[in-house]
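Inverse folding, one chain.
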């Protein structure tokens, strides 16, 4: 998942556990640079690019500690907005100028990097560390054809429904919707109060796909998209896909997303702010949004915000415990990096892949570590709302965990999918036209 390029520079200041103040300043995209350990990078330093959001603070802190303890193995890091990173990393890899450590979401992009020889096989160096530490479903995302090419470093990131319980109660909705029919009823009640039922950052496009992915799963089960991911000809033309697109357009026509969703973007966190400011009742977002809720208003996150799994659909084949979203983020190592840079990066990953300090830091910032046997640690550090335990249990127990469509599909298919999905949400094409257009990508 990603969204549109933005030109905003964030300053992050510590305001207590999980509290970080985001202050926007206009500047060129990707201008925020962190030279951890107090100095500019030299040609011998391993290099790393990450996002400039709260979720990556634990890894940035780990780099700072590493550089202090290992002055001869420094890692120089630079941060970017989400989509700015995706565009820049593609260009850098294509030109042979990628950073030493390449961040991805796993899926098709990781396979492309491996097939192209752009990243190195980490099996001998890191397989034991990863397999012993990381939840199997998340660790699997770093493998290509049985070989390890990426180690996860971030929190587990399923998409969930977030709720402003105050707005819901004021609209006469006493509990979070658990079924599709209950969701539709809640939309009507919230709309009647004059507030936006569901915040949707449509200007970023990728938030659309969370709705599509969950609906296809709930209606037809995980097998439907698995056929699509496998590239089976005509596999988009499944009744579950048509019904999912129809239900999406039913929501749009019901005014569920208001009138300005197509211009709202996620990278500047304005979508999260609408929920915090009592302007909307619900939002479908990845668990990565939770640190932003905490950062914007910790009291709201602890006392007013609630969350649940995506609603079930009557007569659907999918298990209500199935998840979609990002498994995590993964670090790979560039094959173009020098031998010393590769060795330093491997040493860093071996010593920091969900170390105790990393796990603690992640929980402090609101990110849930996909680490085996840390239930007690998660529970001990849980929020008043129980968010950490909710996410950890969901990820551990999910019968199926579908990687975000835009990461699971090859980049050309993913771009076509996002463009056509946008047209579905804007009521510019019919569900069947969406299916027909997508089937062309499999011919």
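Residues assigned per position:
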């Amino acid at each position: 998942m990603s969204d549109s390029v933005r030109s905003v520079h964030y300053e992050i200041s510590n305001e207590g556990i999980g509290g970080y103040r985001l202050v926007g300043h206009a500047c060129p995209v990707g201008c925020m640079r962190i030279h951890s350990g107090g100095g500019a990078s030299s040609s011998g330093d391993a290099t790393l690019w990450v996002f400039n959001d709260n979720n990556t603070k634990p890894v940035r802190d780990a780099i700072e500690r590493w550089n202090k303890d290992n002055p001869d193995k420094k890692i120089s890091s630079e941060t970017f907005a989400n989509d700015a990173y995706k565009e820049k990393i593609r260009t850098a890899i294509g030109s042979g100028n990628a950073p030493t450590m390449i961040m991805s979401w796993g899926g098709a992009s990781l396979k492309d990097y491996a097939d192209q020889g752009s990243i190195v096989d980490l099996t001998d160096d890191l397989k034991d560390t990863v397999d012993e530490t990381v939840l199997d479903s998340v660790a699997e995302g770093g493998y290509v054809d049985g070989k390890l090419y990426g180690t996860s470093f971030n929190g587990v990131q399923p998409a969930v429904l977030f709720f402003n319980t105050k707005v819901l109660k004021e609209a006469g909705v006493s509990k979070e919707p658990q079924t599709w029919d209950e969701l539709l009823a809640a939309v009507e009640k919230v709309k009647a109060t004059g507030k936006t039922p569901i915040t949707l950052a449509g200007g970023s496009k990728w938030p659309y796909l969370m709705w599509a992915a969950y609906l296809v799963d709930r209606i037809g089960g995980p097998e439907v998209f698995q056929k699509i991911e496998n590239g089976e000809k005509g596999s988009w033309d499944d009744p579950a896909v048509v019904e999912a697109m129809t239900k999406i357009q039913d929501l749009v026509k019901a005014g569920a997303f208001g009138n300005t969703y197509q211009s709202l973007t996620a990278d500047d966190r304005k979508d999260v702010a609408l929920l915090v400011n009592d302007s909307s009742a619900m939002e479908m977002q990845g668990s990565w949004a939770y640190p932003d809720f905490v950062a914007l208003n910790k009291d709201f996150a602890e006392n007013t915000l609630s969350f649940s799994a995506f609603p079930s659909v009557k007569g659907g084949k999918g298990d209500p415990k199935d998840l979609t979203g990002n498994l995590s983020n993964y670090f790979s190592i560039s094959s173009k990096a020098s031998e010393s840079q590769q060795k330093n990066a491997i040493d860093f990953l071996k010593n920091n892949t969900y170390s105790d300090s990393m796990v603690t830091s992640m929980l402090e910032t609101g990110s849930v570590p996909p680490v085996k046997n840390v239930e007690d640690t998660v529970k001990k550090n849980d929020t008043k709302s129980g968010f950490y335990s909710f996410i950890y249990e969901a990820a551990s127990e999910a019968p199926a965990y579908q990687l975000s469509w835009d990461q699971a599909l090859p980049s050309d298919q993913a771009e076509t999918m996002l463009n056509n999905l946008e047209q579905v949400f804007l009521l510019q094409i019919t569900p069947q036209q969406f299916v027909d257009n997508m089937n062309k990508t499999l011919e």
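The mean pLDDT is 88. The chain has two domains: 8-155+328-372, 157-324+402-442.
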